[in-house]
Amino acid sequence: MPNSTDRHNSVPTRRDVLKAGVAGGVALVAGCSSSNNNANGGNTSRFTYFDPVGDPPSQRHFNPWNPSQSAAWHPGANVFDRLAVHSPASNESFPIIANNWTMPDKTTLETELSDQWTWHNGDPVVAQDWAMQWEMEMAITSSGDGSSTTPMKSIEVVDDHFLRIQLNTELSEIYAVQNTIAYYHGDIGRGIFTKHDDDQWSEWHDRLLNSEGDELTSVIEEVTTTSYPSLDKGIGQGPFQISEVGDDTVLMKKYEDHPRAGDINFDEFELWVPGDVSERVQPYANGIVDAVPGGYPIQKNKRNKLPESHSLYRQKRTANSLFCFNNGHGVEGYDSAVQNANVRKAICHVFDKQQTKGLLQGVQQLFDGPPCRVPGPMIKEGKHPATEWIKDFPRYGQNDTKRATQLLRQAGYERANGEWLTPDGERFEISILNPAEQKHFQVLIQNLKDFGIAVNAENVDTATLDARRQNGEYDIIPDGSSANGAFAMWSPGLVVDWIQSLTNYKPEAEIPMPVGDPNGSSGTKTINVADHINQWMTTDDQKYHKELTWWWNQTLPEYEALYEVDAGALNTANFEFNNVPDAIVSGVDDAAYISLKLEEGTLRYKG
């Protein structure tokens, strides 16, 4: 954890001066008065940011539980602050409102909150505010059959600036923090949206904690469908507060009492809402916006339109394009050939990923590594321990028809007159749903046909695809998966819940040992995937990660074919990230907002 001792006391704020009773104190603090522009260098520049959501500002709201037209991320992550921020790319957390955190035991996390933060109406930010939000989340999440839970069992507000969190399971500190005070999944972690003495939040909180049955169902429906509060009514505690809500813009002005206000040398932050959220080049190239939060790099033929001072950030935020296999566990009524691991391996060996280069248009890149669920940029960088142990893993994707032949014959398949037959003597055919969604599937289809495997390619509507996926009625479908960090790719919600439901892999599997030897010279080891992930989170022992990557390589629930960076674009003609940790700039999705809240550095107007 970064050292946070006395970290909020290094820069005096307007609030510090006023509390100390210094005569003329407002004039002594940088940026403390909108009429005193000379105090911050005379700068009144406005930073304009592209809004990727696109909903009209007048219809947006700051309710993190109602996903419809939510503004919890844009502009909520700027208007509201959080206790800490986690960077999936580096798997480390940085304090914001939290001064520090400790773990007296493996199921208890304690954290002290700074007393420097105030809501935009001047009220102090207290532990009760954060506790209210998470108690509401816990009540909503655990309703129904109780199968879904948060990582937290209970929250104790010791006093206004001290929290004690009890966990549902033992965790090491890094994973305890990222799953609680630095939670980074979805809207709920973007900030503290609930003010504990707000009448509406208080009412909902009370009803959620003290209702059951139909009454609980009713209040959950109310909370998750109500647009409260609207953008113009919401009171935050972040570095900027809502000033104007227009038809296609949201204007925010710097909150002068924010602990980081003295470090921020521009006064206005504007969110620009486009008519077409997919068009991210023209408004950036034409100077309508200073930055775009994602969607870069762009196709090569468009790059000459970009400003000379164009730069990228969030470059460790990536997404994989995968072949998703139906592993067949628990599936009834559909006997897929690819439920056999040797068949899956053979298909991946037949694939010639080099043939996809002409289709990438400068955006996607070949996944230059073996299947292992380690992000492509991390493999390229070569600094993470995993990049060493995966070097000897089978790579696939190299049109190795000799190895594919061996694997298919081991599975009982035979080839006659250039065509592969199943163990039952039938023509071997693979069904691929919606290959048109991913251009590299055309390469796979041709590779399989050239090898003698028939392919039935079907393009169906979304509803049909979802129904067949959920029923396990497919062989291969395209899948896209975020790849933002070594552990982020193995989070239980992603691998144990989502990918298992998608691929129907067996929760327990035998893997050849030692790791890296597909021949299993030391026999096999049975692992439970969920247990292994939990042990990794509890102990922070890399051996669990090592065995999980090996399980993925040898079991192949999915095959990573390509990846693409989902970077943000910043025109550095007027603004730059100044001394902001690379873990934030490169690895956090709302880096532009978070940089304004850190003691380490900030987004700065160059002037």
TrEMBL record:
A molecular-function term among this protein's GO annotations: peptide transmembrane transporter activity
Keyword Transport: yes
PANTHER family in UniProt: PERIPLASMIC BINDING COMPONENT OF ABC TRANSPORTER, PERIPLASMIC OLIGOPEPTIDE-BINDING PROTEIN-RELATED
Annotated localization: Cell envelope
Membership in a protein family: Belongs to the bacterial solute-binding protein 5 family.
Signal peptide bounds: none
Keywords: Signal, Transport
BP-aspect Gene Ontology terms: peptide transport
Pfam family of the protein (one): SBP_bac_5
Source superkingdom: Archaea
Domain Solute-binding protein family: 95-485
InterPro entries linked: SBP_5, SBP_5_dom, TAT_signal
Name of the protein in its database record: ABC transporter substrate-binding protein
Nucleotidyltransferase found in the keyword field: no
